[in-house]
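Q: Is it fine to ask for two folds in a single conversation?
A: Yes, each is treated on its own. Send the first.
Q: Here.
A: Result:
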Amino acid sequence: MHLNKDEEKMLDGEQGEVEKNLFRLLIRLGDIYGADKMIPVGSVQVAGVSYKSIGDPGMEFLEDFAKKGAKVKVLTYLNPAGMDLENWEKLGFPKDFAKNQIRIMNAFKKMGIIVTSTCTPYLAGNLPRFREHIAWSESSAVSFSNSVICARTNSEGGPSALAAAICGRTPNYGLHLWQNRQPTVKIKVETDLDFNADFGALGYYVGKQVKNKIPYFTGIKNANTDQLKALGAAMAASGAVALYHIEDMTPEADIVEKKGLETISVGKKEINDTYKKLNSAKDPDIVILGCPHASLREISTLANKLNGKHLKKPVWICTSRVMKEAADRMGFTEIINKAGGEIVSDTCMVVSPIEKMGYKTTGVNSGKAANYLPGFCKQDVVFANINKLIEAQL
């Protein structure tokens, strides 16, 4: 692997022991995948933030890095934490969990990382440009940035993303290279998709079929960015899809090579069967929306449905702190709170300890959440579109 002079200095330890060790990690990663060189990254998004995910060993590891003076070189955001960092007590998060989560956030902050904890960094101030090289961790954000924005990133692990942030580099392999961004399977959609949940169901089904291939979709007539993030998030969760193309919709779809692809057709039956497969209960203890984190459009949709109503059971919508503050200003938060709901920032149902907070069955409109909740949070799942979930609670 070719290294420039600055990179050789990193490897020699001229910029500190932490940077030296992390740069060695990146070199080993590049050697495994045959990278020819390192490339600068414009931004980083780091996973491994929730105390539920990393526990005491991860917390102590991060505190040790911060103590040794590690600092990031590029704009770096965090994945969701395990709780709402400002409103955790009111929402019922355990105090011992909160104490350790705050320690983790303080360690990240000392390293110069923006402690905006979100799986949609592109909605909260970290928006890469077209074809910019980045190093992001969260699978749904990787999918969205590669597919909808057409920045370039591999699916980084927490350590490799942190290494990229501190070194400002990532190895040049995988989806950073144009030849590796070509579709490998065609998905022919033969049914209408109306709700975000429909796109989540499609994504879950396709992810199961294609694993880590790159799908090229035809037949999707219209989709907003919320629906595209729902599609990509579900494919990344049920399979390992980090990039997809949609005919006449995503930026690289008209220039990739599409000849001779294996074709998989998806119709109404496959979507309906996926809904049935992902449902393991009928009556949720709580409904949680916002996986991936909700946009202001999704928050406003919920507010409109709840205006002047009263909920029978708790409803949360998870989002970034940035979106929450915009919702406050627009009056959406007040409407949702008056109905008995909550806008929850910094976290989501998958990485928070909801199983320790008295919840056993969760209603979601997210294919990704429906996939992960049974294993990660010991939850039964009610998977449906937002209309059905909210109408059942009014």
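Q: Second one now.
A: Result:
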Amino acid sequence: MHDNGKKTSWWKRFTDKLNREFRWFLPGLGYKRWLALTVIGAMLLGLGLAVIVLQYYRTTTNEFLTPILAVLSLRFLDRPIRFLLFGGIGFTLILFGIWGANRAVLKPFEREGRPAWEAVQQYRRKDRGIKVVAIGGGHGLATLLSGIKAYTHNITAIVTVSDDGGSSGELRRDLGVLPPGDIRNCLSALSNDEALLSQVFQYRFKSGAGLEGHSLGNLFITALAEITGSFEEAVAESGRVLAIYGKVLPSTLSNVQLVGDVRLHDSDEIVHIKGESKITGANGRILRVLLDPSNAQAYPPTVAAILNADLILIGPGSLYTSILPNLLVSGLVDAIRSSRAEVFLVSNVATQRGETDGFNVSDHMHVLEQHIGKNIFDLVISNNNFKGDLGEGVDWVRNDATSRRSYKVYETDLVDGLYPWRHDSKKLAKAIISVFEERTGPLFD
């Protein structure tokens, strides 16, 4: 019984290993076509060698070599048997050689507990994934990108360049570059190695003359902009360094500033304020925002990405300072209207102090329509989990009767358990892909 148990255990390990290896032949890996090409090449090579050997065999008069060739060619067997024997041995050697080569090449890319074939399969699926364009800025857009990259590699993030606060604002004022902060966040979110390299990219200096408050990524992008002579090229090169999936593009290359009309709380006076950071710190209610200059043109690759998209996601993010600065760029909303893509608005989970105090979903929609005209959204994705402590002065953004009556709204749990005022990236991405599949069909056959 003991020996039988050992035999069973050995056989199970063998069959499990064989099963794992045969998963390389699953559909969608792009592996079988190259295997077939290799086999055909080997057959042609063998056929060429056989022609030479056969010619030599028929014409040689060497009494010593002739019987040796007869034995090596198994002439004493019927031809179909010889074909099966030689073909079987050759095919087995080809498979074994390819298997060994694959293991040697893919070994550095294997992750613990995850076979290489699975990594290849997932990569291939994502490489054929839908074309997603995400428009916004700040941490909201980075959260969305971090989740959606699990479903597709064809992602284009379109980012606002109106930021004038913090490290980005200082670099903008001192060196005249476009603000890199929101772009840096998106690059890190799309990175193939968020755990290490992107953390370095996000590192913020806590002290040091001229360095305090700056993030390494902002300085890196700024340095590349001076080296390459182009901000957009600097962003592209930064993406290559971080091995990102997709692209990050500015909405415009114009040096735009955000201008807002704000009704002050203490005096009820309406003031005209220039500068994103000053608008949100004015202690009032924002009535409207616009760009200066107002004729800033959309970056052409940004327009092209929108026109070629399958799905356009707007938000989450600060309504007045992340979302609208993109949509106010000349030509961008027109491109969205002309695109055949599904257009989803991702509603914020919670209100934002100084921007959307007391807002619900319909308030957000009203502000967007006030600034860009007729509704451009096919669907609004909204949170319906209101558990958690948001802190003083922050409320849940709830779907209300007006939004349910006037718009198509999809409600689901989107809340991050640790930080309930934020979206959970995995929940959000899953909800987006699920509802997109419901509307258009499955992503993969």
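Q: Anything structural to flag on that second result?
A: Two points. The mean pLDDT is 83. Strands lie at 132-136, 155-159, 247-250, 257-264, 270-274, 284-292, 311-314, 342-346, 379-383, 409-412.
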